[in-house]
Amino acid sequence: MRFLGTNIPDNKRIDIALTYLYGIGRSNVKKVLTAAGVQDSIRAKTLSEDDIKKLTNVLESYKLEGDLRAEVSGNIRTLRDIGAYRGMRHARNLPARGQRTRSNARTKRGKRMTIGAIKKEVAAKIEAAATAKTK
Fold first, then answer.
1. Angle between helices 49-59 and 26-36 (to 10 degrees)
2. What dihedral do alpha carbons 65, 71, 75, 76 form, nearest 10°?
3. Using CA atoms, how far apart are residues 13 and 113, in angstroms rounded to an integer?
4. Are the C-beta atoms of residues 49 and 4 closer than 8 Å to each other?
5. CA-CA distances (angstroms) from residue 39 to 13, 14, 47?
6. In the Cβ-directed half-sphere of 12, how many Cα atoms lie within 13 Å?
7. Could you tell me the domains of the chain?
8. Closest CA to 57 of 72, 39, 37, 27
9. What pLDDT does residue 124 have?
10. Separation of alpha carbons 23 and 8, rounded Å
11. Distance in angstroms (rounded) separating the CA atoms of residues 28 and 71
12. H or E element that contains 135
C-alpha cells in the first residue's frame, strides 16, 4: 500500500504502518486516525477504499515527506549561512545539541581513529629531515 509516494507495510497495524511516513510519529498517528475515524487496531491490508480516502484527506493537511525534508534542510542551510553555532556543528558533522563528544557520539563522528603514538625510529627520521631542511 502506498501513501504519498511511500510504501507502508501491509501486515502491520495501521497505527504502526503510518509511522513509516516521514513526519508522522506515534503522537501524530493518534490524531490522524481519530480525525479520519479509523480504528488503530486494524491491519493496513484490511483497510477499505473509504478508509484510505479518509486517511489521504487528513494526511494532505500535514507537511510530510519531500516538503518536510526540504524545509528541514533549508533550516539547517540557514543556520550555516548566518554562522550560528548549531550551523557550524551541522557543517562539521558533530552533535548540535550539547552532547558529549569526547567519549561518545560515534554514530555522528564515525569509526575510531588512533592519532599519535609513533615509533622512535620514525620520529628520529622526521626530526633529522626537519633539521636538514633548516641547514
1. 120
2. 40
3. 43
4. no
5. 10, 8, 10
6. 11
7. 2-61 (1.10.8.50), 74-135 (4.10.910.10)
8. 37
9. 80
10. 14
11. 19
12. none
Cell numbers 510530510: residue = 64
Contact 3, 33 (CB under 8 A): no
Mean pLDDT by 10 residues, the chain (135 residues): 81 90 90 89 88 88 88 93 92 87 82 72 79 72
pTM tops 0.70: no
DSSP 21: S
H/E element holding 94?
A: none
DSSP 26-81: HHHHHHHHHHHT--SSSBGGG--HHHHHHHHHHHTTS--HHHHHHHHHHHHHHHHH
